[in-house]
Amino acid sequence: MEPYKCPVCGNTDIHSIGMLNGKLYCRRCISFKGEEVEHKTSYPKKAPIHLEYELFPEQKVLSDKLVENYKKGLDSLVFAVCGSPKTTNP
Which end of the chain is more exposed for a tag (fewer CB within 10 A), N or C? Predict the structure, then answer.
C-alpha cells in the first residue's frame, strides 16, 4: 500500500494521519475535513464609520487606527479582555 499523502497540504507523516469510517484523513487539515478549500474573495461590508455616541480617549485612539487600517485595506485584530468597554460607553 502506498503511503497516504494529503491532497491539501502534502502531509505524509504517519503520526498526523487518522482514519474515520475506513477513510484516511489528515489531522493537520482537520478543519478542512480533508477537502480542497476554494479561495474566496471577501468584499468590504458597508458599515457606518460614524458613531452616535462618544468614545473614551483610549477607544478613540484605537478606533482612529482601525478606521485608518480599514481604509488602507489592512486587517486588524484587537485583543481586549471580556467586560472591557470595546463597543459603547457604560
Answer: N
40 grid coordinates: 474566496
26-81: pLDDT as tens digits: 888 776 554 554 555 555 666 666 777 888 898 889 888 988 988 888 888 888 77
Distance CA 41, CA 39 (A): 7
> Is the separation of the CB atoms in 86 and 80 below 8 Å?
yes
How far apart CA 43 and CA 47 sit, in angstroms, is 12
Domain assignment present for 58: yes
Asked if residue 21 belongs to a domain, the reply is yes
Identity (one letter) of the amino acid at 53? Answer: Y
For residue 44, tell me if it sits in a domain.
no
In whole angstroms, how far apart are CA 18 and each of 2, 13, 71? 15, 10, 44
